[in-house]
Design a protein that fits this description.
The complex is a heterotrimer of chains A (about 120), B (about 475) and C (about 475). By secondary structure, chain A is an all-alpha fold. Chain A is built from four helices and no strands. Chain A has a single domain, classed as NADH:ubiquinone/plastoquinone oxidoreductase, chain 3 (Methane Monooxygenase Hydroxylase, Chain G, domain 1), CATH 1.20.58.1610. The longest helix of chain A is centred in the C-terminal third of the chain and has 29 residues. The N and C termini of chain A lie far apart (about 55 Å). Chain C has one domain. Chain C is globular and about 70 Å long. Classes of the chains: A mainly alpha (about 120), B mainly alpha (about 475), C mainly alpha (about 475). Chain B: It is a multi-pass membrane protein.
Chain lengths: ~120, ~475, ~475
C-alpha cells in the first residue's frame, strides 16, 4: 500500500487525457472546416463509390456466428493466462505446473462440453 | 471455503451429467451436491480462516449466511421437478448455472478483498441474467432478462467505479486496510473520494438487493422470470447482498457511520414507504411478491444501520425467515399455475389464481397461509421474530422514528398479504384438488414447520451466531 | 403449572378436534371446554386473595434478549380466567343448534381462541402478552371470515387491519420500555412497573398503549370496525369478540397503562376519560335508534365498555374494582343477549325489531331468562350489572363530577334501549314471522341457565368476587401515587 500518492501525481494522466480528447475534437472540427463539400444524393450514400445500396443492413444473421465469436473470445482470453505462467515457469515450479494442468483440464473439459453440445457443428 | 471448490466442480459435473440419456438423475444429483456443500460449509465452524492469499475470510457469520443460501437453494431446486417434464428445457444447464451462482453468492458473503466482492457479484448476476431469460419462448421472460441485464450491468459499472475510487484514495482493496485507513483519520488522499467511492459502491449493491430508489427493475424481472428462478433470485441474491453489505459496512466503514448511516436510513424509509404502498395496488401475485421483497429489503436495512452483534443476529434470522416463507409461497404458486396449464387454462398469476384454493386443497392453503403470516410478521411465525429483532436493533440505537415508520408500513403490508389468504379461503373458485408430488409436498411441509418452530423457539438460530 | 395447563389444554384439545369429524368433533370440543372450565374453577377455589401471582410458571425462553416464558394468575387476571373458562363451553354449546359446515375446524378455532385468551390474561412477560394478544386475533378472524354473513370479507378485513395496527403500536411501546429496563434488559411486566420514565416519554407510551387497547375495546373514535363485525360474524364469534376479546383491551389498560405511565395518565388521562364517556353517550343514543337486534346489542356493548374504560381512567379503587367485576358481568350478559338474538333470528328468520313481536305468548321460559339477562344489562339492583356499574360510576364521580354525571346517563339510556328491544320483540302483536315460535330446547336452556345463575350470584353476593381482586387492585394503585 503506497500511501504517498497525492492528487497532483495524477496530473500527467489528466494532461494526456485532455490532449487525446483535444486532438480528436480539433481534427473533427478542422476537417469539417477545411475540406470542400459538395452534397448530392449520390454523394450522401453510405458507399459513395461502390455498388448501389440494396435493402436493410439489419438482416438476421445465423446465431452460430455469435456462438463461435463468443467461444473464440472465451478461449482466446484464457490462453492469455499462459503467457505470464510461461515467463515465470521456473519460479512457480511444480506447484505452478500442477495448477496449470488443472486450469487446462478445466478448459479442455469446457471444450469437450462445447463439442458434445454440437455447438461447432455447422449444418 | 470448501463449498466454493465443491460447488464449482459439481457444477461442471452436472453439465456432463446432462449428456446422460435419462434426465431423472439430475434432480437428485443436484440436491445431493448442495447437501454436501451444506455439510462442508460447517468444516470451518468456530475458526476464523483466511483463504486464497487473504482473498476470502471464513467466520461463523459467513458460514451462517452460506448455510442460509444453500438451504434456500436446496429448497428451490427440490421444487424444480417440472423441468424434467418440459421438452425444451435444459435442466442440466439450469442446475449447473444455479450451482455456479451459489459460488458467487458465497464469495459475496465471505469476501475479504473488494475484488472478490466484485467477482462474486458478477458471477451471481450473470447467472441470474441467464436464468431470468431461460423461458426462451416467452416474450415476458426475454424482456425481463434484457432489462435485468442492461440495468444490472450499469449497476455493476457504478459499483466498479466506486471500488476504483476507494482504491485510489486508500491504496488497497483489503477490508482490514480500508478499516485502518478509515479509522486512522483520513491522512492521505481526499475524503471526498472516499465518500464518493463508498456511495457508488453502496448504490451498486443496493441495486442488487433491490432497495428503493434502485428497485425499478424488480417487478418486471420477477414477473417475467420463470417462477422458480424468481424464488431463487428473491432469496439467494438478497441474502448474499445483505451479507456483503454487512461485512463491508460493519467492519471497514464503522468510522464514517455518520456518512453512510444517514444515507441508508433515507434509503430505508423510501424503500419501506414506496414498496408497501405500491404493493397494495398490485393485482398480480408475483408483482406483489416483488414489492414484498423490496419491502423486506427495507426491514433488513434497518438492522444494517444499527451496527453491532445484535444486528448480525437479526440479519441472519430475518434472512432465514424471509427465505423460507418466500420459497414456500412461490412453491404454492408454482403448483397452482402448473395445475392450471395442466387443465389447459391460461396461466394466471394474479390473486384470482388462488380463489377457493383451500376448499379442495387444505394443505396448500395452510402452507400458503403460514408463509403469508410469516411475511406479514404475525406472531408464532418466524417472520414475527425476524421483524421483532430488526425493530429492537433500531430501538437499541434509539432510532424510534424509524421504528414507527417500519411498524406503520408493516401494518400496511398485512393488507396485501391477507388478500391471498382471503382469496384462498373466502372467495369462490373452481380449483379442483391438486395432486402434489410427495417430495415436493415434504419440502413445503418442512418449510412450514420450520417457520412455525422458529416462531415458537427463535432461540434455536439466535444462539448459533 | 396449573396456568400452563389452562393455556395448553385447549390448544391440544383443539388440535385433536381438527382430526375428528362432524358430531364427534362437536361433542369432543364441548367436553374439552367443560374440562377447562372445571380446571379454571379449581384454580379459583384454590386462589388466595393476595397481590401475588399464583400457580405460575417461569422458564427462560429467549436467553439473549432476557425474555422469559412466564405466567401466573393474580387478582387482576383471576376473574378473566373465570370468564374465559365459563363462557367458552357455553359458546360451544350455543353453536350446537346451527349446522356449520366444516364443523371440526369451527370448534377447533374456538378452542385455539380460548388458549390464546388464557395466555393473554395470565402472561407475566410483556412480549409473551403481545404474542398471545396477536395470536388471539387469527382464530377469531377466520371464524368471522369463514362462517360470517354476506358482507363478511371487507368487514372482517377492516377489523383485522384495525386491530393489528393498534397492536403494532403497542409493540413499539413494549420495545421502548424493554430498552429502558436497567442492566441486561428484561421484559417482565413487573420490571416495567419499576421504571422511572420522563413525563414526555410517558406521554408517548401512554398513547401507544391507549390506541392499541382503545381499538380492541373499542373506545370512541376507534370503534368503526365494531358494529359491522359483530353483525356479520357468526354468533359464536360475536360472543367471543364481545364477551371475552374486548376485555383484553380493558385488561391491558389496567395491567399496563395504570402502573407504568402514571405521569402520562396525569397529562392525558382526562382526555382518554372524556373519549370513553363520549363513547358511552354516543353508543347509547345510537343503540336507541337501531332496528337490528344484533346491531343494537353491539352498540350497547360499545357503550358499556366505554364506562369500564372511564372507570379505569378514574384511577380509583372503586373504578378499577368496578371495571374488573363489570368485565365478568358484561361478558355474561352480552353472551346471553347475543344468544337470544341468534335464537330469535333462527326461528323468525329476521332480526328487525319491527318485524318481531308477541314472542312471549308461546315462550314462558325464554321470556323469563331473556328478561333477567336484559335487566342485568340494564344494571337493575340485585343483578350482576348493578354492582359493576355502581362501582364504576362511583369511581368516575370521584374523579370528576361532570364526567360522572354524563356517564350516569348510561343507566337511563341503557334502560331505554334495552326495554325497547325487549318490548318490541317479546310483547305486542305477533307478526307473520313469529306466529309459531317454539320455546327453548334443552341445549338452549343449558346455555342460558348458567348465565342467569351467575347474574344472580354476582348480583346478590358480589363479595365472593370482589374479595378476590381487592388486594391486587390496592397493590396496583400504589404505583400511581
Amino acid at each position: 500500500m503506497n500511501a504517498a500518492y497525492v492528487p497532483s501525481d495524477y496530473l500527467p494522466v489528466f494532461i494526456q487525457l485532455i490532449l487525446a480528447l483535444g486532438f480528436i475534437v480539433t481534427t473533427m472540427i478542422v476537417t469539417h472546416m477545411v475540406g470542400p463539400k459538395r452534397n448530392s444524393q449520390k454523394k450522401d450514400d453510405p458507399f459513395e463509390c461502390g455498388i448501389p445500396v440494396v435493402g436493410d443492413a439489419r438482416t438476421p444473421i445465423s446465431i452460430k456466428y455469435f456462438l463461435i465469436a463468443i467461444l473464440f473470445v472465451l478461449f482466446d482470453v484464457e490462453v492469455i493466462f499462459m503467457y505470464p505462467w510461461a515467463v515465470n515457469f521456473k519460479q512457480l515450479g511444480v506447484t505452478g505446473f500442477l495448477e496449470m494442468i488443472l486450469f487446462m483440464g478445466l478448459l479442455l473439459s469446457g471444450f469437450y462440453y462445447v463439442i458434445r453440445k454440437g455447438v461447432l457443428k455447422w449444418e | 471455503m470448501l463449498p466454493i471448490i465443491l460447488l464449482s466442480v459439481f457444477g461442471i459435473a452436472l453439465l456432463f451429467l446432462g449428456f446422460a440419456k435419462s434426465k431423472a438423475i439430475l434432480l437428485p444429483a443436484t440436491l445431493l451436491f448442495i447437501a454436501i456443500a451444506f455439510g462442508a460449509s460447517f468444516v470451518d465452524w468456530g475458526k476464523n480462516y483466511m483463504y486464497f492469499n487473504d482473498m476470502l475470510l471464513s467466520t461463523n457469520l459467513s458460514i451462517a449466511f452460506t448455510a442460509i443460501v444453500l438451504l434456500s437453494a436446496f429448497m428451490v431446486v427440490s421444487l424444480s421437478s417440472s423441468f424434467l417434464e418440459d421438452e425444451s428445457a435444459q435442466p442440466a444447464e439450469y442446475y449447473a448455472i444455479m450451482l455456479f451462482s451459489l459460488v458467487g453468492a458465497i464469495m459475496m458473503i465471505s469476501f475479504e478483498n473488494l475484488i472478490m466482492l466484485f467477482v462474486g457479484v458478477e458471477i451471481l448476476s450473470v447467472a441470474m441474467y441467464v436464468l431470468t431469460g431461460s423461458d426462451k419462448r416467452n416474450l415476458r421472460s426475454n424482456e425481463a432478462a434484457l432489462k435485468y441485464f442492461l440495468m444490472g450491468s450499469f449497476a455493476t459499472g457504478i459499483m466498479l467505479f466506486g471500488l476504483a475510487l476507494l482504491y485510489g484514495t486508500s491504496g488497497s482493496f483489503v477490508l482490514s486496510d480500508l478499516r485502518s485507513y478509515v479509522n486512522g483519520g483520513v491522512a492521505y488522499g481526499s475524503p471526498l473520494l472516499l465518500y464518493m467511492g463508498l456511495l457508488l459502491l453502496l448504490v451498486g449493491i443496493l441495486f442488487k438487493v433491490s432497495a428503493a430508489p434502485f428497485h425499478f427493475w424488480t417487478p418486471d424481472v420477477y414477473e417475467g422470470a420463470p417462477t422458480l428462478f424468481t424464488a431463487f433470485m428473491s432469496t439467494v441474491v438478497k441474502t448474499a447482498g445483505f451479507a456483503a453489505l454487512l461485512r463491508l459496512l460493519s467492519f471497514s466503514f464503522t468510522g464514517i457511520y455518520s456518512f453512510w448511516g444517514v444515507i441508508l436510513m433515507a434509503v430505508t424509509v423510501i424503500t419501506l414507504v414506496v414498496s408497501n404502498f405500491t404493493a397494495v395496488y398490485q393485482s398480480s401475485f408475483k408483482r406483489m411478491m416483488a414489492y414484498s421483497s423490496i419491502s423486506h429489503a427495507g426491514y433488513l436495512l434497518i438492522a444494517l444501520t444499527a451496527v453491532g452483534q445484535q444486528s448480525k443476529q437479526a440479519l441472519v434470522f430475518y434472512s432465514l425467515a424471509y427465505s423460507v416463507a418466500t420459497i414456500a409461497a412461490f412453491g404454492v404458486l408454482l403448483v397452482v399455475s402448473r395445475h392450471q396449464s395442466g387443465e389447459g387454462k391460461p396461466t394466471d398469476e394474479s390473486y384470482d389464481a388462488f380463489n377457493g384454493l383451500a376448499r379442495q386443497n387444505p394443505l396448500l392453503g395452510f402452507i400458503m397461509t403460514v408463509a403469508m403470516l410469516s411475511l406479514a410478521g404475525i406472531p408464532l411465525t418466524a417472520g414475527f421474530w425476524g421483524k421483532f429483532m430488526v425493530f429492537t436493533t433500531a430501538a437499541n440505537r434509539g432510532i424510534f422514528w424509524l421504528l414507527v415508520v417500519a411498524v406503520l408500513m408493516s401494518a400496511v403490508s398485512i393488507y396485501y398479504y391477507f388478500r391471498v389468504i382471503i382469496a384462498m379461503y373466502l372467495r369462490d373458485g373452481q380449483t379442483t384438488a391438486i395432486r402434489v408430488a410427495p417430495f415436493y409436498r415434504y419440502v413445503l411441509i418442512a418449510a412450514t414447520i420450520l417457520t412455525i418452530v422458529l416462531g415458537i423457539l427463535p432461540n434455536l438460530v439466535r444462539s448459533l451466531v | 403449572m396449573l396456568t400452563l395447563a389452562l393455556i395448553f389444554f385447549p390448544a391440544v384439545a383443539a388440535t385433536v378436534t381438527l382430526l375428528l369429524n362432524g358430531d364427534s368433533a362437536k361433542r369432543f370440543a364441548l367436553g374439552a371446554a367443560l374440562l377447562e372450565f372445571l380446571l379454571a374453577a379449581y384454580v379459583i377455589s384454590q386462589f388466595i386473595a393476595t397481590p401475588e401471582f399464583q400457580f405460575g410458571f417461569d422458564v427462560p425462553w429467549i436467553n439473549v434478549l432476557g425474555i422469559r416464558f412466564s405466567g401466573g394468575i393474580d387478582g387482576i387476571s383471576i376473574l378473566l380466567v373465570l370468564l374465559t373458562g365459563l363462557l367458552v363451553p357455553l359458546i360451544v354449546l350455543s353453536a350446537f343448534g346451527q349446522n356449520y359446515n366444516r364443523s371440526a375446524t369451527f370448534y377447533a378455532l374456538i378452542l385455539y381462541m380460548q388458549a390464546a385468551l388464557m395466555g393473554v390474561f395470565t402472561a407475566r412477560d410483556a412480549f409473551l402478552f403481545y404474542l398471545f394478544f396477536e395470536a388471539a386475533l387469527i382464530p377469531v378472524y377466520f371464524l368471522a371470515a369463514l362462517w360470517g354473513g354476506a358482507n363478511r370479507i371487507p368487514v372482517t378485513f377492516k377489523f383485522f387491519i384495525y386491530t393489528i395496527f393498534g397492536s403494532l403500536l403497542m409493540l413499539v411501546a413494549l420495545v421502548y420500555l424493554y430498552y429502558q429496563t436497567p442492566g441486561l434488559h428484561s421484559s417482565a411486566i413487573a420490571d416495567f412497573y419499576k421504571l422511572n420514565l420522563t413525563p414526555a416519554a410517558q406521554g408517548w407510551v401512554f398513547w401507544a398503549f391507549f390506541i392499541a387497547f382503545a381499538i380492541k375495546m373499542p373506545v370512541f373514535p376507534f370503534h368503526t370496525w365494531q358494529p359491522d363485525t359483530y353483525v356479520e360474524s357468526p354468533t359464536p364469534a360475536t360472543m367471543l369478540l364481545a364477551g371475552i376479546m374486548l376485555k383484553m383491551g380493558v385488561y391491558g389498560l389496567i395491567r399496563f397503562i395504570l402502573p407504568i405511565v402514571p405521569a402520562g395518565l396525569d397529562t392525558w388521562g382526562m382526555m382518554a376519560a372524556v373519549l370513553s364517556v363520549i363513547g358511552i353517550v354516543y353508543g347509547s343514543v345510537i343503540a336507541i335508534r337501531q332496528r337490528d337486534m344484533k346491531r343494537l346489542i353491539a352498540y350497547s356493548s360499545f357503550a358499556h365498555v366505554g364506562l369500564m374504560a372511564a372507570g379505569v381512567f378514574s384511577q380509583t379503587t372503586y373504578g378499577v374494582q368496578g371495571a374488573l367485576i363489570q368485565m365478568l358481568a358484561h361478558g355474561i350478559n352480552v353472551v346471553g343477549l347475543f344468544f337470544v338474538a341468534e335464537l330469535i333470528f333462527d326461528r323468525a328468520k329476521t332480526r328487525q325489531l319491527d318485524q318481531l313481536g308477541g314472542i312471549t305468548r308461546t315462550t314462558p321460559k325464554l321470556t323469563v331468562l331473556f328478561m333477567i339477562l336484559m335487566l342485568g344489562s340494564v344494571a337493575l339492583p340485585l343483578t350482576n350489572g348493578f354492582v359493576g356499574e355502581f362501582l364504576l360510576l362511583k369511581g368516575v364521580f370521584d374523579y370528576n363530577n361532570y364526567l360522572g354525571a354524563l356517564a350516569g346517563l348510561t343507566i337511563i339510556l341503557g334502560a331505554v334501549y334495552m326495554l325497547r328491544m325487549f318490548q318490541k320483540t317479546m310483547f305486542g302483536k305477533p307478526s307473520n314471522n313469529t306466529q309459531s315460535f317454539a320455546d327453548l330446547s334443552t341445549s338452549e336452556l343449558w346455555v342460558l341457565v348458567p348465565l342467569v345463575f351467575f347474574v344472580f350470584w354476582m348480583g346478590l353476593y358480589p363479595a365472593s368476587f370482589l374479595k378476590l381482586t381487592e388486594p391486587a387492585v390496592t397493590n396496583l394503585l400504589r404505583y400511581i401515587k
